[in-house]
Design goal:
This protein has 131 residues and is an alpha+beta fold. The chain has one domain: Nuclear Transport Factor 2, Chain: A (Roll). It has four helices and six strands; from the N terminus they run ααββαββββα. Strands 2-1-6-5-4-3 form a six-stranded mixed β-sheet. α1 packs antiparallel against α2. The longest helix has 15 residues. This is SnoaL-like polyketide cyclase. InterPro entries: NTF2-like_dom_sf, SnoaL-like.
């Protein structure tokens, strides 16, 4: 059985992110998409619009000296415009090491991601890493 189109879209997005292919990511995001980053760290907050989201992705690399890495582990869909991912993050920053599970809840309209809401297994560890 073929994978659901929303799962395919999300997998393509993770692949583009890992490769640093911001133009592919831009094409997948709605013009007014919002990416919500939880916590109280330097990158926490709501990023509205393609430029703001892509700049935040660029800053992930900058803040971690290029060590930020994500491994997609699973994609779940509901067939009604939502996809949920489970992934594993690693990075090094200012003498700290991140080794954390997380995920993103995606809202998808047509073939565009409109809302990305990040979740993490240990918000305190994430806040400490990004403080």
């Amino acid at each position: 059985m073929a994978e659901h189109p929303n799962a395919q879209l999300v997998r393509k997005g993770y692949d583009a992110f890992v490769r640093g292919d911001m133009e592919t990511l831009r094409a997948m995001l709605a013009a007014d998409a919002t990416h919500h980053v939880p916590g109280t760290g330097v990158l926490s907050g709501d990023y509205k619009g393609q430029d703001a989201i892509l700049d935040m992705y660029r800053r992930l690399g900058e803040e971690t000296g290029g060590t930020f890495a994500v491994e997609l582990r699973q994609v779940l869909v509901d067939g009604r415009g939502h996809a949920v991912t489970l992934h594993h993050l690693t990075a090094d920053r200012q003498g700290k090491h991140l080794d954390e599970d997380g995920g993103i809840v995606f809202r998808i309209v047509g073939d565009k991601m409109t809302d990305l809401d990040e979740c993490v297994a240990d918000i305190d560890a994430m806040n400490d890493f990004w403080s």
